[in-house]
Amino acid sequence: MTGSDKPYDVIVVGGGLAGLTAARESAAHGLSVASLDEGGHMGGLVMNVGRVEDYSPASDASGMDLAVAELEALVEHGVEIVPDAALRLEIDGTIRTVKTDSGTHRAKSVILASGARLKPLGVPGEERLFGRGVSQCAGCDAGFFVDQDVVVVGGGDSALQEALHLTGYVRGVTLITHGDALRAKQDFVSRADDDPKITVRYQTAVAEILGQDEVSGVRITPTGGGPAEDLACAGVFVFVGLEPNLDYLPAEIERNAAGRVVTGPDFQTSVSGVYAVGAVRAGDSGQLAGAVDDAAAVAARIAGKSNERRISRRNL
Question: How do 235-238 and 134-135 pair as beta strands?
Fold first, then answer.
């Protein structure tokens, strides 16, 4: 909304499934809605998932399938899609302003659903070889490693899910984790244990990613100390956690030590009219279904408040 003084009812920052749900549900309640996401592609990290599990509406659909369906629903409901990242959120009285490269967008309420980005390992060779053997998307890049050996770094759900996906393409997967046990769901752990292509190296860290023009291996060390070892591989897939995408937030919105937004039980932040759902929110379950349910609940709450304001004005 550039060049207009009339604010939206709701601006949703972020195009992951939680953000798409918040925008769709807000519009379905009759609110005027803008959805902001850099590039306008929508979908967030779920776009990298070849098969979405533990999300009942998906029924084994891919992340891309889910995102496309939600995007089509946004268009049908008249949501304005702004293909820009939020650069800054400003609070001025009862109006919230989101600055982007394309201009200024104003709303009565803002839903923060900008999700999280995958953390890098932060070791030598990672940045230089990203896209040349280093990846954070098995669904995108598995086909480049047919019948080759790869390394997956991490011990949580994402690492296990991506390792299991890779076994359909590669010769072998070495899963490297700091801990003495895997942190993933038991179903993923059991499937990995039963897969002869997956080998787990516990209490191990990647110290360096090796290679000149492309990945040739990793240098690993025991987390308790000991000599380094070079392990040959053609690819390295990094899934060591998430960090919230909240660089645009003002200081008055309270965050916890991990940088996630603190909310009340109604998902409202420390600033009235600003809500948070999904991976940006402290206390988020980390489950896709939970984030989507939260987004729908926030939309219903905002719609209820908007209706209360309209009724109050009519009674004056």
Answer: parallel
The dihedral built from the CA positions of residue 6, 99, 88 and 294, taken in this order, carries a sign that is positive
Which amino acid, residue 270?
Answer: S
Question: pLDDT tens, 239-280?
Answer: 998 889 999 999 999 999 999 999 999 999 999 999 999 999
Q: Which phi and psi angles does 303 have, rounded to 5°?
A: -60, -40
pTM above 0.85, yes or no: no
Token code pair at residue 26: 């807000």
**CATH fold of the domain at 8-117+242-314:** FAD/NAD(P)-binding domain (3.50.50)
Superfamily of domain covering 120-238: FAD/NAD(P)-binding domain (3.50.50.60)
pLDDT average, residue stretch 219-234: 96
pLDDT tens digits, one per residue of 123-153:
999 999 999 999 999 988 999 999 999 999 9
